Amino acid sequence: MAATALAPYACDPERSRGRLHPEAPPINRTQFQRDRDRIIHCNAFRLLEYKTQVFINHEGDLFRTRLTHSIEVAQIARTLARNLSLHEDLTEAISLAHDLGHTPFGHAGQDELNACMHEMAPEAGGFEHNLQSLRVVDELEERYAAFNGLNLCFETREGILKHCSVSHARELGEIGRRFLDRTQPSLEAQIANLADEIAYNNHDVDDGLRSGLIRIEQLMQIEIFATHYAGVMRKYPNLERQRAVSETIRAMINTLIVDLTETTRARIGHARPGSADEVRLAGPLAAFSAPMRAQTNALKSFLLANLYRHSRVMRMTTKARRIVRELFTAFIDDPRLLKDEYRREGDVEQARAIADYIAGMTDRYAIREHRELFRMD
Ligand code: MG
Q1: CATH of 27-206, one of 3.40.50.720, 1.10.3210.10, 3.40.50.880, 1.10.287.370
Q2: What is the pLDDT of residue 62?
C-alpha cells in the first residue's frame, strides 16, 4: 500500500529547521528516519533495558522496563500519527528517545538526583529528566566523528524536550523558546506525549495486577477498567484471569486511541492549521474528549494511590533514593573516586558531570557501584 500523504499541518522532513551541525542529507531515508535510526543505535537507548519503569529490573522478567515502555509508546504513537496523516517516523523517533535521560530506579532516582543537585551544588541548576534526554542526544553520546551527541533535527529535539523550567529554557535558545512564549510543539510531539500516557497507564495496570500489588476487585471501582472488563466477560464468560486482563487492556488502549484520534481530528478541523508552524501557534490540538480525560485521570489517581505509593514500591523507592544520594555525596566529597572521564575543574561542571554519570547508570550498575564504594572490609 502506498504511504498516505502527509497532512499540511504535519512536519515535513524536507522543510526541517535543521540540525545543530549541518550535514549532507541522507540518501535513502528521510531526515526523520535518520533520527530514528540514530536513536536506536545509541548507547543510552540500549541502557533503557536495565532501567526501572515501576518495578526494579530484577523483580521479574515480565515487567516493563524503560526500553519496552519506549517501544510501546512508539507503537501507539505511530498508530495515532498514521490516523492523523502526521509524520510517522518523527513521532516514532520522539517516542523512542523520550526517556533517554531517565535515571536508574524510575522517578525515585530522578527526584533524589534533583534534590542532591539543589542541596550540594545549588549553582548547577538541578536535574530535570526531560532536559537530560535532550542533553543525551545533543551532547553526551559519543559516536560520531564530527560532533558530540546525535545531531538530531530540531523537530525531534523539540519533541524530546517535553517540559523545561523557565530558567533552563532561557539558556537553551531556540529549542527552549516555546516555554517562554508558551507556544506548542508539533502535533507529532503532542501525540507522542499522549501515547506515553496511554502506554504507562495501561501497562502499569498489567504489571500492577501481575505483581499482586493491585487487584481486579479494586480496579472495578474505576470506570474505564470496569466497563471494558465487563465487556470482555460478557463476550467470554469463562475466560481465565490473565487473558481477561490482557483483553481488557487491549480494549482500553483501543478506546483511548479512537477517542484521541477523533477528538484531535475535530480540533484540527476547527483550528484549521495550514502548516506545522501554525500548529505551534494554536492551542494544544491533540487531546482526549472531556469524558475520556476524566476517566484516564481517575485511573491515574488510582495507580498513584494504590500502586506507585504501595508500601512494597515505597520500600524499593526509599532504598533507591538512598543509593543515589550516597553515590552523589561520595563523588562530590571526593571526585578522585570518579573515573577520569567524569572529573572536572569547576564545582558546577563537576556536579553536572556527576549527575550525568549517575543518570546514565542502569539499576544494577548503580547497585554494584554503590556496593563497591561502601563495601566494609
Ligand atoms: Mg515515558
Answers
A1: 1.10.3210.10
A2: 83
